[in-house]
Amino acid sequence: MTSSSNEGYSTEKVRVSADFLKSKMGNVKPKIGIICGSGLSGLGEVVENKIVVKYSEIPSFVESTVPGHKGQLVFGQISGKDVVCMQGRFHPYEGYPGWVVGFPLRVMKLIGIEMVLATNAAGGINPEFKVGDFMLIKDHISFTGLAGYTPLVGPNDSSFGPRFPPMNDAYDKNLRTLFKQCASDLGYDDFMRDGVYCNVFGPSYETIAELRLLLKLGGDAAGMSTVQEVVTARHCGIKVIACSLITNECILEYDTDKTVCHDEVLQTANDRAHQMQTLVTNSQTSRTHWQPLHCS
Ligand SMILES: O=P(O)(O)O[C@@H]1C[C@H](O)[C@@H](CO)O1
Ligand SMILES: Nc1nc2[nH]cnc2c(=O)[nH]1
């Protein structure tokens, strides 16, 4: 598998995976897909009447190799709505080409998904952000994409979408407004931000000089995922909303002993899991429901 071809991305392969999942889904007909970021697999635990399908069973799915990513799909209901939840995602740094990272989104398209909520763990670059903040993604800078790593490389399959998809509307404006309103209803204003997500390849965290560059370029948070999923989803017409959990401070000063590690990322995710779940499940205490807007 190389990143300069998409030989495995054939419509036929996507269809085989989708047909396999349809045979497992029972009466669940999800229009909403949820992707759990590092340490946020708990989002899948709130799904009711779970039907669990391991990635290892699904044709053409690869393994999720990162701690905090379970490697299974969960079908069922959240707040009475049918959903499918990816407990674990694929990252470029795991050695997968872009089309492999985006593959589950094309499968989601074929099983009927119309909207995806992607979550991730990210480092806070914006000096006003605190560890534990949520950042609703309003835009991204894809350093991987700009450098030529993209799920859309190679021949375009026009049955999914156009050769040159726009990305200025990647993160759905109406859904973002509703999501923020929902957060506000829940009393989350103090830690709800929005901003620009910078996607870097990883797996090393950034140097101080790199982070200063990202800050200058308008980045608010740094992470190693999500944009390949977003690009694949938007290419095939799935609406996207995405939320980062700021799991750690990005270190922008030389004169410090602070550092960052994946255990800290997982710890913060664990500490904030409950609020993230409440936001995603549209707690009854919120007057605003962001999920149903385009998905009745
Ligand atoms: O899958 P996400 O983007 O939530 O995971 C982040 C990025 C790396 O995989 C890892 C680094 O700690 O967390
Ligand atoms: N690139 C990057 N990804 C992260 N994921 C969680 N924290 C970080 C971070 O500080 N940098």
UniProtKB/TrEMBL annotation:
InterPro entries in the record: Nucleoside_phosphorylase_d, Nucleoside_phosphorylase_sf, Pur_Nuc_Pase_Ino/Guo-sp, Purine_phosphorylase
Nucleoside phosphorylase domain segment(s): 31-281
Pfam families per the UniProt record, alphabetical: PNP_UDP_1
Keyword Transferase: yes
Gene3D superfamilies in the cross-refs: Nucleoside phosphorylase domain (3.40.50.1580)
EC nos: 2.4.2.1
SUPFAM superfamilies in alphabetical order: Purine and uridine phosphorylases (SSF53167)
Amino acids binding phosphate: 38, 69, 89-91, 121, 225
Keywords assigned: Glycosyltransferase, Transferase
GO terms under biological process: nucleoside metabolic process
Pathway: Purine metabolism; purine nucleoside salvage
Family statement drawn from the similarity comment of this UniProt entry: Belongs to the PNP/MTAP phosphorylase family.
Name by which UniProt lists this protein: Purine nucleoside phosphorylase
Organism in which the protein naturally occurs: Ciona intestinalis
